[in-house]
Protein backbone atom coordinates (compact mmCIF):
# COMPACT_ATOMS: atom_id res chain seq x y z
CA UNK A 1 0.00 0.00 0.00
CA UNK A 2 2.86 2.41 0.76
CA UNK A 3 4.21 2.02 -2.77
CA UNK A 4 0.80 2.63 -4.27
CA UNK A 5 0.32 5.73 -2.13
CA UNK A 6 3.71 6.98 -3.19
CA UNK A 7 2.89 6.55 -6.86
CA UNK A 8 -0.47 8.29 -6.36
CA UNK A 9 1.26 11.27 -4.73
CA UNK A 10 3.85 11.42 -7.51
CA UNK A 11 1.14 11.36 -10.17
CA UNK A 12 -0.71 14.18 -8.45
CA UNK A 13 2.42 16.32 -8.10
CA UNK A 14 3.21 15.82 -11.78
CA UNK A 15 -0.37 16.56 -12.74
CA UNK A 16 -0.18 19.91 -10.96
CA UNK A 17 2.54 21.02 -13.40
CA UNK A 18 0.73 20.36 -16.68
CA UNK A 19 1.98 23.60 -18.15
CA UNK A 20 5.60 22.55 -17.67
CA UNK A 21 5.22 19.00 -18.92
CA UNK A 22 3.21 19.76 -22.03
CA UNK A 23 -0.14 18.63 -23.34
CA UNK A 24 0.94 15.15 -24.49
CA UNK A 25 2.41 14.13 -21.16
CA UNK A 26 -0.55 15.67 -19.35
CA UNK A 27 -2.96 13.72 -21.50
CA UNK A 28 -1.04 10.50 -20.82
CA UNK A 29 -1.19 11.10 -17.08
CA UNK A 30 -4.90 11.95 -17.29
CA UNK A 31 -5.55 8.71 -19.14
CA UNK A 32 -3.58 6.79 -16.52
CA UNK A 33 -5.31 8.40 -13.53
CA UNK A 34 -8.19 10.65 -14.69
CA UNK A 35 -9.56 11.23 -11.18
CA UNK A 36 -6.24 12.54 -9.84
CA UNK A 37 -5.60 14.56 -13.00
CA UNK A 38 -9.01 16.20 -12.73
CA UNK A 39 -8.41 16.98 -9.07
CA UNK A 40 -5.01 18.48 -9.90
CA UNK A 41 -6.53 20.67 -12.64
CA UNK A 42 -9.15 21.92 -10.23
CA UNK A 43 -6.55 22.58 -7.53
CA UNK A 44 -4.53 24.63 -9.99
CA UNK A 45 -7.59 26.66 -10.99
CA UNK A 46 -8.59 27.12 -7.35
CA UNK A 47 -5.04 28.24 -6.48
CA UNK A 48 -5.16 30.83 -9.27
CA UNK A 49 -8.52 32.08 -8.03
CA UNK A 50 -7.24 32.29 -4.46
CA UNK A 51 -4.11 34.19 -5.47
CA UNK A 52 -6.10 36.60 -7.63
CA UNK A 53 -8.62 37.14 -4.83
CA UNK A 54 -5.76 38.05 -2.49
CA UNK A 55 -4.49 40.57 -5.05
CA UNK A 56 -8.02 41.95 -5.34
CA UNK A 57 -8.20 42.39 -1.58
CA UNK A 58 -4.88 44.27 -1.64
CA UNK A 59 -6.10 46.39 -4.58
CA UNK A 60 -9.26 47.30 -2.69
CA UNK A 61 -7.20 48.33 0.31
CA UNK A 62 -4.94 50.43 -1.92
CA UNK A 63 -7.92 52.08 -3.61
CA UNK A 64 -9.53 52.85 -0.27
CA UNK A 65 -6.30 54.56 0.82
CA UNK A 66 -5.98 56.56 -2.42
CA UNK A 67 -9.63 57.56 -2.25
CA UNK A 68 -9.26 58.63 1.38
CA UNK A 69 -6.16 60.70 0.46
CA UNK A 70 -8.08 62.48 -2.30
CA UNK A 71 -11.05 63.20 -0.04
CA UNK A 72 -8.78 64.44 2.73
CA UNK A 73 -6.78 66.64 0.34
CA UNK A 74 -9.90 68.15 -1.19
CA UNK A 75 -11.31 68.91 2.25
CA UNK A 76 -8.01 70.54 3.24
CA UNK A 77 -7.92 72.66 0.08
CA UNK A 78 -11.55 73.74 0.60
CA UNK A 79 -10.84 74.67 4.20
CA UNK A 80 -7.70 76.63 3.28
CA UNK A 81 -9.54 78.47 0.50
CA UNK A 82 -12.11 79.65 3.03
CA UNK A 83 -9.35 80.56 5.47
CA UNK A 84 -7.52 82.65 2.85
CA UNK A 85 -10.18 85.40 3.05
CA UNK A 86 -9.72 85.69 6.79
CA UNK A 87 -5.94 85.70 6.41
CA UNK A 88 -6.17 88.50 3.84
CA UNK A 89 -8.17 90.63 6.28
CA UNK A 90 -5.70 89.97 9.11
CA UNK A 91 -2.74 90.71 6.83
CA UNK A 92 -4.31 94.03 5.77
CA UNK A 93 -4.94 94.86 9.40
CA UNK A 94 -1.38 93.93 10.33
CA UNK A 95 -2.53 91.16 12.65
CA UNK A 96 -0.45 88.44 10.92
CA UNK A 97 2.95 88.49 9.30
CA UNK A 98 3.49 88.22 5.58
CA UNK A 99 5.87 85.30 6.15
CA UNK A 100 3.14 83.26 7.78
CA UNK A 101 0.65 84.09 5.06
CA UNK A 102 3.25 83.32 2.41
CA UNK A 103 3.88 79.90 3.98
CA UNK A 104 0.14 79.27 4.03
CA UNK A 105 -0.13 80.22 0.37
CA UNK A 106 2.75 77.91 -0.53
CA UNK A 107 1.03 74.96 1.13
CA UNK A 108 -2.29 75.75 -0.54
CA UNK A 109 -0.70 76.00 -3.97
CA UNK A 110 1.26 72.78 -3.37
CA UNK A 111 -1.88 70.92 -2.33
CA UNK A 112 -3.79 72.18 -5.37
CA UNK A 113 -0.92 71.13 -7.61
CA UNK A 114 -0.81 67.70 -5.93
CA UNK A 115 -4.55 67.09 -6.17
CA UNK A 116 -4.59 66.00 -9.88
CA UNK A 117 -1.84 63.48 -9.16
CA UNK A 118 -3.76 62.07 -6.20
CA UNK A 119 -6.92 61.89 -8.29
CA UNK A 120 -5.02 60.06 -11.04
CA UNK A 121 -3.58 57.60 -8.53
CA UNK A 122 -7.08 57.02 -7.19
CA UNK A 123 -8.37 56.38 -10.72
CA UNK A 124 -5.50 54.01 -11.48
CA UNK A 125 -6.14 52.09 -8.26
CA UNK A 126 -9.83 51.88 -9.06
CA UNK A 127 -9.17 50.64 -12.61
CA UNK A 128 -6.72 48.01 -11.33
CA UNK A 129 -9.23 46.90 -8.72
CA UNK A 130 -11.99 46.68 -11.35
CA UNK A 131 -9.86 44.57 -13.66
CA UNK A 132 -8.96 42.21 -10.84
CA UNK A 133 -12.65 41.97 -9.93
CA UNK A 134 -13.43 40.94 -13.51
CA UNK A 135 -10.71 38.30 -13.39
CA UNK A 136 -11.97 36.96 -10.05
CA UNK A 137 -15.52 36.80 -11.42
CA UNK A 138 -14.31 34.99 -14.53
CA UNK A 139 -12.22 32.53 -12.50
CA UNK A 140 -15.15 31.90 -10.14
CA UNK A 141 -17.40 31.11 -13.10
CA UNK A 142 -14.68 28.99 -14.67
CA UNK A 143 -14.26 27.02 -11.44
CA UNK A 144 -18.01 26.46 -11.19
CA UNK A 145 -18.14 25.39 -14.84
CA UNK A 146 -15.15 23.12 -14.28
CA UNK A 147 -16.84 21.44 -11.32
CA UNK A 148 -20.00 20.89 -13.34
CA UNK A 149 -18.07 19.58 -16.35
CA UNK A 150 -15.85 17.37 -14.16
CA UNK A 151 -18.89 15.90 -12.44
CA UNK A 152 -20.50 15.21 -15.79
CA UNK A 153 -17.28 13.72 -17.17
CA UNK A 154 -16.79 11.48 -14.14
CA UNK A 155 -20.40 10.30 -14.40
CA UNK A 156 -19.86 9.57 -18.09
CA UNK A 157 -16.65 7.68 -17.27
CA UNK A 158 -18.41 5.66 -14.58
CA UNK A 159 -21.25 4.88 -16.97
CA UNK A 160 -18.81 3.87 -19.71
CA UNK A 161 -16.93 1.59 -17.30
CA UNK A 162 -20.21 0.05 -16.19
CA UNK A 163 -21.19 -0.57 -19.82
CA UNK A 164 -17.78 -2.06 -20.50
CA UNK A 165 -18.12 -4.41 -17.55
CA UNK A 166 -21.65 -5.32 -18.66
CA UNK A 167 -20.55 -6.12 -22.21
CA UNK A 168 -17.62 -8.15 -20.90
CA UNK A 169 -20.00 -10.10 -18.67
CA UNK A 170 -22.37 -10.68 -21.60
CA UNK A 171 -19.51 -11.90 -23.75
CA UNK A 172 -18.40 -14.24 -20.98
CA UNK A 173 -21.94 -15.55 -20.57
CA UNK A 174 -22.29 -16.07 -24.33
CA UNK A 175 -19.00 -17.95 -24.38
CA UNK A 176 -20.20 -20.16 -21.52
CA UNK A 177 -23.50 -20.86 -23.27
CA UNK A 178 -21.68 -21.59 -26.51
CA UNK A 179 -19.38 -24.01 -24.69
CA UNK A 180 -22.32 -25.76 -23.07
CA UNK A 181 -24.13 -25.99 -26.41
CA UNK A 182 -21.08 -27.47 -28.06
CA UNK A 183 -20.60 -29.84 -25.17
CA UNK A 184 -24.20 -30.99 -25.42
CA UNK A 185 -24.00 -31.68 -29.15
CA UNK A 186 -20.43 -32.82 -29.68
CA UNK A 187 -19.07 -34.16 -26.39
CA UNK A 188 -17.39 -37.56 -26.86
CA UNK A 189 -17.85 -38.33 -23.17
CA UNK A 190 -21.58 -37.60 -23.29
CA UNK A 191 -22.00 -39.68 -26.45
CA UNK A 192 -20.15 -42.61 -24.88
CA UNK A 193 -22.24 -42.30 -21.72
CA UNK A 194 -25.45 -42.34 -23.77
CA UNK A 195 -24.33 -45.42 -25.69
CA UNK A 196 -23.34 -47.13 -22.45
CA UNK A 197 -26.77 -46.41 -20.95
CA UNK A 198 -28.46 -47.91 -24.01
CA UNK A 199 -26.23 -51.01 -23.84
CA UNK A 200 -27.01 -51.54 -20.16
CA UNK A 201 -30.70 -51.06 -20.89
CA UNK A 202 -30.52 -53.69 -23.62
CA UNK A 203 -28.68 -56.08 -21.31
CA UNK A 204 -31.32 -55.59 -18.62
CA UNK A 205 -34.10 -56.27 -21.12
CA UNK A 206 -32.35 -59.50 -22.25
CA UNK A 207 -31.91 -60.68 -18.68
CA UNK A 208 -35.60 -60.03 -18.05
CA UNK A 209 -36.55 -62.17 -21.03
CA UNK A 210 -34.36 -65.05 -19.80
CA UNK A 211 -35.73 -64.69 -16.27
CA UNK A 212 -39.32 -64.70 -17.55
CA UNK A 213 -38.64 -67.90 -19.52
CA UNK A 214 -37.10 -69.64 -16.50
CA UNK A 215 -39.91 -68.44 -14.24
CA UNK A 216 -42.72 -69.79 -16.44
CA UNK A 217 -42.21 -73.57 -15.56
CA UNK A 218 -41.97 -72.66 -11.92
CA UNK A 219 -45.22 -70.77 -12.07
CA UNK A 220 -46.91 -73.66 -13.89
CA UNK A 221 -45.65 -76.23 -11.32
CA UNK A 222 -46.90 -74.10 -8.48
CA UNK A 223 -50.29 -73.82 -10.15
CA UNK A 224 -50.55 -77.61 -10.58
CA UNK A 225 -49.52 -78.19 -6.98
CA UNK A 226 -52.19 -75.83 -5.78
CA UNK A 227 -54.81 -77.74 -7.80
CA UNK A 228 -53.70 -81.02 -6.33
CA UNK A 229 -53.94 -79.72 -2.83
CA UNK A 230 -57.41 -78.37 -3.39
CA UNK A 231 -58.62 -81.78 -4.74
CA UNK A 232 -57.00 -84.01 -2.08
CA UNK A 233 -58.34 -82.06 0.84
CA UNK A 234 -62.14 -82.23 1.57
CA UNK A 235 -64.16 -79.11 1.90
CA UNK A 236 -64.81 -78.75 5.63
CA UNK A 237 -65.62 -75.10 5.71
CA UNK A 238 -69.39 -75.56 6.42
CA UNK A 239 -69.41 -78.77 8.58
CA UNK A 240 -70.87 -78.83 12.08
CA UNK A 241 -69.07 -80.12 15.15
CA UNK A 242 -70.94 -83.48 15.00
CA UNK A 243 -70.04 -83.91 11.32
CA UNK A 244 -66.46 -83.13 12.12
CA UNK A 245 -66.37 -85.81 14.86
CA UNK A 246 -67.88 -88.40 12.54
CA UNK A 247 -65.37 -87.49 9.81
CA UNK A 248 -62.45 -87.77 12.11
CA UNK A 249 -63.70 -91.15 13.54
CA UNK A 250 -64.15 -92.55 10.05
CA UNK A 251 -67.85 -93.31 10.68
CA UNK A 252 -69.27 -90.95 8.19
CA UNK A 253 -68.72 -93.19 5.20
CA UNK A 254 -70.02 -96.31 7.03
CA UNK A 255 -73.17 -94.58 8.12
CA UNK A 256 -73.81 -93.59 4.58
Automatic annotation (TrEMBL):
Residues 129-179 form a coiled coil. It comes from the Bacteria. This is Uncharacterized protein. Keywords: Coiled coil. Residues 228-256 are annotated as: Disordered. Residues 230-239 have a biased composition (Polar residues).
Amino acid sequence: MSNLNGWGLTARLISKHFGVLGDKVSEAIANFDPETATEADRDRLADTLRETAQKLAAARSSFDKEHADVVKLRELIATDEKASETLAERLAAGKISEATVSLFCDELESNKARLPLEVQEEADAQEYMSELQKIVDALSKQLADFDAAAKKAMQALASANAQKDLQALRAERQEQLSSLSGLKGNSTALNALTRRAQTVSNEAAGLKIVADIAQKPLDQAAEIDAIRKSVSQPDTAGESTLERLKRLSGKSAAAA
